[in-house]
Amino acid sequence: MNLLMDVGNTRIKAAITQVDGLHELKPFAYDLSNCESLLSHQIDGLEVPQKVLVANVGGEAVADRITACMARLWRREPKFVQVPREWGGLVNGYADIRQLGVDRWLGLLAAWMRYRQLVCVVSCGTAVTIDCATGDGRHLGGVIIPGLELMQRSLNQATKGINATRTSDPSCKLGLSTDVCVANGALYAVCSLIKNVLADLESRHGEQPSLVVTGGDAATVGECLSTPFASRPALVLEGLAIIAEQE
Q1: CA distances (Å), 231 to each of 130, 155, 210, 217, in order?
Q2: Each residue of 18-27: b (16+ CB within 10 Å) or e?
Q3: pLDDT by residue (tens digit) across 224-243?
Q4: Pick from 80, 104, 125: which residue ends a domain?
Q5: Which of 3, 13, 61, 209 is a good FRET partner for 46, with 20 to 30 A between their CA atoms?
């Protein structure tokens, strides 16, 4: 059994791998004050894993707390996965591979290993990231914009008259209140970006890319997409599982 962790800016998702596949644990929100205690509670009762693999974009302080937790509970040292130049035939397109977030790399790896064709991975979280790769394993790069909530928050902070409250059900249509206009505008922006990236990929490569959507706002974004897509909520964990199996 292996323990896998996807550590984001505000949430931790974890899973265990067994012979019958990937089994997700309940995700939880965290901050530095409660990270170690919440993680201990989450994994209490699990058998001692052979490996602990972590994808961490939460920073060094979070990594220190995870390391302390693993040492205290199991005397295991977690492996914090680093982004490589190449893995399994997928070649990192960044000139400086250290700049590519490990969550983006693992999500792209999982999607590319599944489809082995032109693929576009959209992660809808605090930021919206898009990464693309060709069928022969060339990482084409990507784009990053603020996520739905961050777009709305930035408008509130940078203007004096908007003060929008986030609505629970934004949609791609015109709004009749400021709150709805801001929420729907953010959703329009994300969906329009995805549409344009897909069109550009098809124009440049002569084939329709496979679209994979993940992240906390994936369901909201997915409702406004006209293009067929695969929803993979545990995409980063899937990437970790691939690496754990091969090492």
Answers
A1: 14, 29, 11, 11
A2: eeeeeeebeb
A3: 999 999 999 999 999 999 99
A4: 80
A5: 61
CA distance 241 to 170: 34
Query: Catalytic: 136?
Result: no
Token pair in block for residue 73: 């509970």
- Using CA atoms, how far residue 33 sits from 30, 72, 129, in Å, is 8, 17, 28
For residue 35, the one-letter residue type is C
Query: Domain check: are 106 and 222 in the same one?
Result: yes
Phi, psi of 18 (to 5 degrees): -130, 180
- Is the alpha carbon torsion for 74, 75, 81, 87 positive or negative? negative
| Lookup result for tokens 């922006």 | 189
At which residue do the structure tokens 């369901």 appear?
219
- pLDDT below 50 — which residues of the chain? none
Does residue 62 belong to any structural domain of this protein?
A: yes
CA 25 to chain centre: 16
Q: Which of 6, 103, 131, 217 is catalytic?
A: 103
76 and 33 together in one domain? yes
